[in-house]
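Hypothesis: this fold can be encoded by more than one sequence.
Test: take the structure tokens below, design a sequence, compare later.
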């Protein structure tokens, strides 16, 4: 994982590194952009001096991004106030007043969007006040292409 930011603060006692300001995190075909990104490590693993730039992704336990979060992976693009990614189960949870997931020109909104990356499955929930909304464009269906 490669991360760039305006500032980095390491919290050794919490096994966490926080990146602040114009954060860009990339890995393979994934891009995460936010104002703040916290990377939590497995505490049993020893830390190294170059943790922020070249850490083995197996050491990462969880990633929490906040403020103007944008997530891109393949043809999926998402927007949220907060994103929490847990590496063990490969689940990404996007939350916010208008969390939105786009695939091509199709989209879905809700207050909580859960991407189960291993199963290629998505769960969208509302807060009970604002309902889930979706627009599906048949041209975006990869099975038809």
């Amino acid at each position: 994982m490669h991360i760039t930011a305006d500032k980095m603060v390491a919290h050794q006692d919490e096994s966490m590194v926080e990146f602040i300001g114009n954060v860009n995190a990339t890995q393979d075909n994934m891009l995460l952009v936010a104002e703040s990104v916290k990377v939590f490590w497995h505490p049993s693993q020893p830390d190294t001096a170059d943790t922020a730039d070249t850490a083995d992704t197996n050491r990462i336990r969880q990633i929490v991004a906040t403020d103007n979060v944008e997530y891109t992976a393949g043809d999926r693009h998402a927007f949220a106030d907060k994103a929490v990614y847990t590496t063990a189960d490969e689940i990404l949870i996007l939350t916010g007043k208008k969390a939105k997931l786009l695939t091509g020109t199709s989209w879905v909104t809700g207050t909580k969007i859960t991407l189960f990356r291993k199963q290629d499955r998505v769960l969208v929930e509302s807060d009970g006040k604002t309902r889930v909304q979706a627009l599906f464009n048949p041209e975006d269906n990869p099975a038809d292409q």
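Strands lie at 2-4, 7-11, 16-27, 30-41, 60-73, 76-86, 91-103, 106-116, 121-125, 133-135. The mean pLDDT is 87.
Hypothesis status: open.
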